[in-house]
Amino acid sequence: MHSQSKPAGYSNLDLQLAVLRHLPTPVLVLSPSRKAVFLNRAADQLIGSPDPIQSPAESIHGQGPAELGIKLLYNRTWTVVLDKLVSAHKDAISEGSEAPVHKLGAVVSNTSLTYDQRHFRILVSILTADDGLCYMLSFERSAHIEKKLIPHRDDQISFLDGGHSVIPNGMRHDTAMDGPRDISRIKKAVFDSSNVAGFILTVDEKFYLTNKKTREFLGDVMGGAEGCDGLSLRGRLEIWDENFSRRLEPHEFPGMRLVRAKKPFTDYRCGFTHGITGDKIVMNVSGECLYDDETGEFMGGICWCRDLQEYSDFLSEQQQRRLESHETICNLMPHLVWTTTTDGFCDWYSQRVRF
Question: Which of 309, 270, 311 is nearest to 287 (CA)?
Fold first, then answer.
């Protein structure tokens, strides 16, 4: 048996990159400074290279994931998330455990892709390189896209605007638009264009309609672009108080409170369990009443959901605020105050006493 030597200039790294480049799974690698240094062909097609003449590596080199149009769900920022992942990675290594793989919900801004094609679950692996920690991002289909909940609704559902209907696109056969229907579609388009997640509930409590921003966060959990039946949706939803200590009854849901009381409200804090991914999300909801311009008749309510974030992030922020408050009080005391880790090492001391 004859041993074969490797060709000149050939390395294991070259082989690994060649395999990675031709994988059908989109892969993006970030440097220790969290800038893109490599993406394979699938990722280049997903993100949409701004310059088709340049190679993928040249066109994205030096850009962060946010600059490449990769947006995290639930108002997360890449800097904060990666900082937390690095901390978890270091904790795992110090304990002798295997480094975890983290999952993040995200959407890409490539407008040439359909709604379903732009939503992903990103698997983040942290790798140790000579110059620091690198990040490998692998994109797979989002859970709420792969396993959509099929909304239970009639083929034709009454909309808010004077009894006009929202009919699934595939069932429309006419092309001419009359005035009232045209106005109804324009109003729906304005609702869809809002940068704040929102939903509408009709006065009879039978019909929910979400805007595009809500569907971006939650998928089709609350129905697609044509809305869904209210009764069946409330049977599926898990709405909690903001501390996830008590599950709310349907009549306590923000939309139901608004429609039944017919009074606007602000700053209603509540939690929501995603029916497919299981994510716990907290939000700040405000509600507005909808009236017919001509008759003044109450038609339903619209709820706006702001400050959406995962419950774990919310708890971390609360803990950080409490810690900062504690440190401020300690710094005002005339004594030396310090804290230690579980193994006895000092990790913080007050600034009032100088050494």
Answer: 270
